[in-house]
Amino acid sequence: MERHRWASAILATGLLLITVPVTSAASPHAPDPAASATCALRYLAGQQRADGSVGGQAGVSADYIFGAAAAGFDPTKLKASSGKTVYDYLETGIGGSLSNAALVAKEALAAIDGKLDPTAFGSSDLLTALDATYNSTTHAYGDAETYTQSLAILALAAAANGSHPLPAAAVTELISVQDTDGSWDFQGIKDAAGGGDTNSTSVAIQALIAAGKPASDPSITKGLAYLADQQLSDGGFPYSEAFGPPASDPDSDAVVIQGLVAAGENPSGSAWTKAGHTALTNALTFQDSKNGGFTFPGNSGPDAFTTSQVPAGLLQVPFPGSTSWTAGAALPPALCPAAAPSPKPSGGTGPIATPPATSSIAPPANYQGDSELPIVLGLTTLAAVIIGCRVWARRPSR
To answer: What is the CA 72 to chain-centroid distance, rounded?
Structure first.
């Protein structure tokens, strides 16, 4: 980790020498968040494997469920071409051991969002398994990381099962590890080296609200103040400042939106708008207009891990999720709305494009001509890729 910080410092210094402001090109057509969310879900449906999973990952598969339920679709109908549903995959326990508190909690939330009983999920009692990961001395679940503790709180609060109560001490423990600046870090350690991040902070806020803390609670107001300080000029949010100049990404935008909504904030209100941009408008700039997937900065294209967390954020549905979907409502098989033809100003037709983020290069003061541009572009591209990889590596596995 120390080598990563040194590399980031050197890289950041180099970037200061070649000014590279990153901007997102504006789309000529403002995408509809609901249509974009459905398009993203269709992309995930295309990634569903024969066993019913999305990418063979329990966390990503559960996020697929959360997004579909938030969009009003019946998550129990999320079937692969084999006929297996995403719940068939989760219920087999392929996703991980019942000793993994984060996965157990997330699967319990997925069961609840599907109006299924988490105490009789396949052959497993997820709530009993979650209780077994609780340390009555430290008041932490599993590895005690922020996501783990938050997901456990969210699952037990949503289950509201008298036989599996949410310990008040677990909520107090989550508050106790909040950093001095109002953030939470992924380790769940107060003021740990490297600082907090927007994702951990946002999920902690959602957990505290679900546990009954009012939005006026100091832990939540401090968390919101931290998030406000992290918002960038493009309206988006970075994961963390730990690895060089911060850059927004769709997952961070999505989870921050969820945290803001949970706390009663309006993500599109003036308090969360920068130069006309919001986390919502910024998130949409990362969507591929052809297949509906979302691309993480530095990656060559969309992937299921990045895409799976976005739909619930676009729809502004925080954890523990939604159960207001319509029974039997399946994802539409049609072409993604974001790629459907639309009128051009000239009267012709063309695709609604959601351009990716682009870079605007300001050459150094001693720039002599075009012969130097390839070097500047090369250094800039390398810097963006390295920063993207470092941030990607530190994101929670979900």
So the answer is: 19
Residues 210, 319 contacting (CB under 8 angstroms): yes
Find the helix or strand (DSSP H, E) in which 351 lies. Answer: strand 349-351
The token pair that represents 120 in the structure block: 């009789």
Asked whether residue 340 carries a pLDDT value surpassing 90, the answer given is no
Under 8 Å between Cβ of 318 and 311: no
For the stretch 283-320, pLDDT in tens is 999 999 999 999 999 999 999 999 999 999 999 999 99
Task: Report the alpha-carbon distance of residue 302 to residue 309 in Å, rounded.
Answer: 13
Q: Cβ neighbours of residue 365 under 8 Å, at least 6 residues apart?
A: none
271 alpha-carbon distance from chain centroid: 21
pTM as predicted: 0.80
Predicted pLDDT at 359: 27
Q: Report d(CA 323, CA 66) in Å as an integer.
A: 9
H helix or E strand, kind and range, residue 22: strand 22-24
Distances in Å between the Cα of 376 and the Cα atoms of 14, 18, 19, 385 are 11, 7, 10, 14
Query: What tokens were used for 285?
Result: 């700039």
> What DSSP string runs through 279-305?
HHHHHHTTB-TTT--B--TTSSS--HH
Torsional class of 22: left (φ above 0), alpha (ψ -120 to 50), beta (otherwise): beta
Find out whether 32 and 65 touch, Cβ atoms under 8 Å. Answer: no
Q: Which helix (H) or strand (E) holds 341?
A: strand 341-343
